[in-house]
Amino acid sequence: MGHPTPPAWYVISLRPQGGHDALRRAARRQGAGLLAMSPWRIQPCDDNATRADLRDALACETVVFTSPAAVSAAHALQPLDARPGQSWLAVGAGTATALRRAGIAHVSFPARMDSEGLLALPALTDVRGTDVGFITAPDGRNLLMPTLESRGARLHRAEVYRREPVALTPRTLAALAGLRAPACLLVSSGGALEQVLAQLPGPLQARLRAATVVAASARLADAARDAGFAHVLQAAGPRPAQMIRTACTAMLPGIR
What angle do CA 99, 105, 152 make, to 5 degrees? Predict the structure, then answer.
């Protein structure tokens, strides 16, 4: 038996440990391999204080979830059940899908799947005197809370998971150093990009910065440029298919 043909190109994923499968499948359909460079892992919180914060947040008139991980961690702590008159919001389609799977039939999410898009939803434009539950991680969606507070909302934050930094393994560093095919770096978190760059020695930083970046939003595209990346594209959103579709425009001739 011969050796399998190596991929013609690669995507580099900075998603948390265990979170690469959907991207890997989407990349494989386009003939690409995937190099996983996770700078952190998701650790759900399970303590009495978190449970109390979650009950308080889920009782609010408007309930906001900032990621699929927030939905998973919250659902593990208690069943999710929409009350009459509540508005349930998600930062994007992936989070909305996770909420529907958890039993929430009616979820709103923005076409522009980032903090700015979420803040433009009608349910969050006039929130003076409104209780807003915010289910997230300790450092999640930093733009949202100050903006909602400035609009007069009463915020009830439940931090249901945290991101634990993990060291890049020698095997991962060697894989990056040995990468010979063209590569696209997928950026859906500015914090993840910072964490990875901080762990790389100078030559590997230079190698990574030579890759084309596909960013999930305009804000992340700007962050990539600020971090020294010269070739930056913006995807229509953070979903794997959206990111890979944009990567294909750079890596596969004739794709638009």
Answer: 70
DSSP per residue over 133-194, as a string?
EEEE-TTS-TTHHHHHHHTT-EEEEEE-EEEEE-PPPHHHHHHHHT--S-EEEEES-HHHHH
| Alpha helix segments (H runs only) across 40-139 | 48-58, 68-77, 93-101, 115-119, 122-125
Q: pLDDT digits over 205-232, tens only?
A: 999 999 999 999 888 999 999 999 999 9
What CATH architecture does domain 43-163 belong to? 3-Layer(aba) Sandwich (3.40)
The domain ranges of the chain are 9-39+166-251, 43-163
Q: In this structure, which amino acid lies at residue 137?
A: A
Taking only the tens place, the pLDDT of each residue in 72-105 is 999 999 999 999 999 999 998 889 999 999 999 9
Q: Tokens for 234?
A: 């913006």
The total of other beta-carbon atoms located within 10 Å of residue 138's CB is 10
Kindly report the CATH number that applies to the domain delimited by 9-39+166-251. Answer: 3.40.50.10090
